[in-house]
Model the fold of this input.
Amino acid sequence: MIIALKHDARAEEIGDFTAFLEKQGVRVHLSEGASQTVLGLVGDTSGIDEEGLMARRLVEKVIRVQEPYKRANRVFHPEDTRIEIVVAGGKTRLLGGGYLGVIAGPCSVETREQIVTVAKAVKEAGAGFLRGGAFKPRTSPYSFQGLGCEGLDLLLEAKRETGLPIVTELMAIHQLEVFDGVDIIQVGARNMQNFALLKELGRCKKPVLLKRGPASTITELLMAAEYIMAGGNGRIILCERGIRTFDSYTRNTLDLSAVPALKRHTHLPVIVDPSHATGIAWMVPAMAKAAVAAGADGVIVEVHNDPETALCDGEQSITPDAFAALMGALEKYAEFEGKLLR
Ligand code: PEP
Ligand code: MN
Done:
């Protein structure tokens, strides 16, 4: 971090300020020019509050050289993180670090028949994980809110029937009590900056699928991951799911450039959700393939046995047949990228 001081900063003030900075565990190098003094901070600056520094009278400008996240940073952990999940029979399923993970299933769990039918179909097509929301974050309080605990039970039944590990959204801390059988906890886009929730997940032993907020920057997503990691849980999968832009043709705008950007700055696995990114079923296969070609470690895709009657997100849900065709293509994309699909 570099701190440029005002030209009228007094020696005594600079001395006090330097002592204040050193107390925070960094070394301070002072460079005095003819008209300006600059402080160079070396060491771990992640705990230093830039805005707080700007409030000081003698500070002209603060330039951060190091990224504000440490545990999520590839600089301190060059190898890719691989998420390992133990499934029925002691086998493991992997995502990241050379393994492409495909998560598929309906937006919401609706009935036993629906979730089990979709689970069997996506398993048959080669999906590695089953998704399905039990607690749903809906824009309108009058829309279907998910089946709650009953939905979780049905999801667990689909897990028992197929052996697929399950991914489902946690909306509030108290719901953790009923998440015992869940394999990956999803933090939805709307909760990406729910810091109380993130802190609690830091204390949790389960992997977390962290979705990017629709108006969040890449650095904010990484800082959200840092919250969970700072609490002691390093098993995080980041997910680009589209951001809000001026264009309304698609539900969101898939920021595919986030994939190589994230992969460059973090060792955590990065996946893409082409369903929420586009909101349009016929676009999903193209964007899923593009995600893998861009270097994503996986995709999460909404699949419904009868999209027309789906209680949530039917317009962006692909059918089991379309999903099977997509899996055929993804196998080739995975091979081209040198990744293993199962
Ligand atoms: C979902 O995955 O069903 C969902 C609600 O996603 P997001 O949080 O990305 O909107
Ligand atoms: Mn959905």
Q: What stands out?
A: The CA atoms of residues 33 and 105 lie 62 Å apart. Residues 107, 276, 302, 312-313 surround manganese (II) ion (ligand 2) (CB under 6 Å). The chain has two domains: 2-63, 83-341.
